[in-house]
Amino acid sequence: MRTRLALAAALLALTAGCGGADEPPAAAAPPTAAAPAEPTPEATEVAPSAALPDACALVSRADAQRLAGTPVDAAVPVRESCTYTAPVTGPTAQVEVYVGDGAKKYLDIERELGHEVLPLTGVGDEAHLTAEAFFVRRGDVWVAVRLMRLNDPKENREPLRALARTVAGRM
Question: The domain containing residue 124 runs over which residues?
Answer without folding.
Answer: 51-170
